[in-house]
Amino acid sequence: MLLEQQKVSINTGLKKDNWFQNVKIEQLHKPLLEDTGWTNKLRKINSLYIVENKVDVHRFLHKHSNLIDVILEAHPQIRKYFPTEKLQLKLYVDPESPEWEYLIVCICASPEFVSEAFNKLTDFKKSWWSEASYGVAVNLSIDLEFE
Question: DSSP for 115-144?
């Protein structure tokens, strides 16, 4: 009797999910592909930041779309403090826990001006990032990188 019940529930589950077999992958992503707003925002991000591993970053942004507007809003705010520094956007994957990943906006500063860069970053975080980071800080970090 128990075996028959399991068989019935498995078959019932297959019938419910049977529609999925007839759907093409393109149809599943069609709303995303047609969403020119999302595409335009990605293009804008690509124009404002040097994006490393674009495929991985775009995948992460698709999964965490709430970051897109914050990343776009961050650019003019960062530029108030770092008007000429190179800005990179990259995906960090923890080598010990590959499932733990987040985006980093790297402000590439000169090693000659370390203390000045840290002071500017502190001011930036106090004036904008501390409030803007609510709800996204677990998936997005803004930090300095010296080159």
Answer: HHHHHHHHHHIIIIIHHHTTTTTTTEEEEE
